[in-house]
Amino acid sequence: PLFQVQWLVDNFEPAEGCSLRRSTLYSFYLQHCSDQKLEAVNPASFGKLIRSVFLGLRTRRLGTRGNSKYHYYGIRVKQNSSLNAFSDEHGGLTFRGNNAFANFKNRRWSTSNDGSSPENKPNINDQSYSSQSESTLSQADTKQFIHENNSLIINESIQMDANIQLPDGVTQDDIKRFEGIYKDHCLKLFDVITTLDFGSVEQIWLQFWSHSGRDETIPLALFHSICSLNSVQDFIKNSDYQLYQQSVERLIADILSPMPTSATQAIRTFGKSVDGWLRAALGHLPERLKTIKLTIINAFAMTLRRYTSINHLA
């Protein structure tokens, strides 16, 4: 589309001897689409577009051994571009405002490229993986997944309509307290997922959602009343998208970089288990909330299977 071409011309220029990380450039593009409320194309289509605008653009893998990334070679950000205000920290862009993936992740996870439901798509080379427990992971295998900056960022809050009538016994303070404990819950999940401690995920879900194991910071009846609110369910949905999007980006930072076979097998075994674990934990929660959470977790599992399959083939 014309707006994409114009944005590229306004912000980038050919420059021999200069390079720009491919994922960084695509993140710039996603942020632009998010700010302008525009539909983003997928990375493959964006790659074709940028090559049509900057003829002769080459791709190189640059960086130290074991930590190299794909770069576009022969391009740079213009000196007068507003993109120079962004920084690239720990391999990911730091933007002002909302998460750059917030508007894109929904479309990418909820449907495949042809618009069909992800669960109806075939798994790539699925038979090449054996069912192997994550307990076979060695310390060396897990080391590459552990980062000092192992933090989750959730830019969400519960947006309550001032005119809405709250259920009996529920106060605004209760809702704010729920927001805090849910973000803590997401952080716990992120920590164990990104360090490949997949066996702890089921217990964390049970502890949070189940009456038998949950921390009684909020009494069970009050907890269910809060979860029945659409605005709370929307907050949970958006938080989950950010949790699992960032988990994928941390687990498989570069889909073409080698990964230990035991790690890819553990990730795939985890992906096959999450639906049953979460269904058991959600119990008698509102149906809309269960549908939201199960849809997202199954999209997450499908993404893990697809990415590890492509990694294995590569």
UniProtKB/TrEMBL annotation:
Region annotation (Disordered) maps to 108-133
> Per the record, where are the segments of Polar residues compositional bias?
109-126
Q: Where is the RFX-type winged-helix domain?
A: 4-79
In its UniProt record, a GO molecular function of this protein is: RNA polymerase II cis-regulatory region sequence-specific DNA binding
Question: What Pfam families would the database entry show?
Answer: BCD_RFX, RFX_DNA_binding
Q: Is Iron among the key words of this record?
A: no
Q: Which domain of life is it from?
A: Eukaryota
**Where in the cell does this protein reside?**
Nucleus
Query: What's in the keyword line of the UniProt record?
Result: DNA-binding, Nucleus, Transcription, Transcription regulation
Annotated GO CC locations? nucleus
Q: PANTHER family under this entry?
A: RFX TRANSCRIPTION FACTOR FAMILY (PTHR12619), RFX, ISOFORM H (PTHR12619:SF33)
Name of protein? RFX-type winged-helix domain-containing protein
Species whose genome carries this gene: Adineta ricciae (Rotifer)
